[in-house]
Design goal:
81% of the residues lie in helices and 0% in strands. The protein has six helices and no strands. The termini are far apart.
Length: 140
């Protein structure tokens, strides 16, 4: 059968108004990922919050999704700030020093491809800090 997102949204909205936590969760997910609805992370968070307030069974699934959503929102904000800063620096110092800082469309795909190596490097750094602190405490 063919998926009809418009019909699904209509039914989920009606069920949401009838206080269905599952419908609220599904609307949040659709808003978060732009499935059948425009992607709107703030509206997704609102629907996740409503689902958690409506049903105790939704608290843990919502907590996981809301955490992922907040991390995604923070990353989007950080990337936007880095893009603004790189544009300012490239505009200010580029002509004088030949400086060009690439926009996020260049380095984010690279990071996405190398996520496993980056994660390993971060974990090695964390382990090194733990071992350093542990050695200082034991030498103490």
């Amino acid at each position: 059968t063919e998926v009809n997102y418009r019909k699904a949204v209509t039914h989920y909205r009606a069920a949401s108004e009838a206080r269905s936590a599952q419908a609220m969760f599904n609307l949040a997910y659709m808003h978060e990922h732009g499935i059948g609805l425009p992607q709107d992370l703030h509206l997704a968070k609102r629907f996740y919050d409503m689902a958690a307030e409506t049903s105790q069974d939704a608290v843990w699934p919502v907590a996981l999704c809301r955490t992922r959503l907040l991390v995604e929102m923070a990353l989007d904000d950080a990337i936007e700030r880095v893009d603004q800063l790189s544009l300012q620096l490239s505009t200010k110092y580029g002509p004088k020093y030949g400086l060009w800082l690439p926009p996020s469309t260049v380095w984010v795909p690279w990071l996405a491809e190398q996520w496993d190596l980056i994660l390993i490097a971060v974990m090695v750094c964390q382990l090194s800090v733990v071992l350093l602190v542990r050695n200082r405490i034991s030498a103490g």
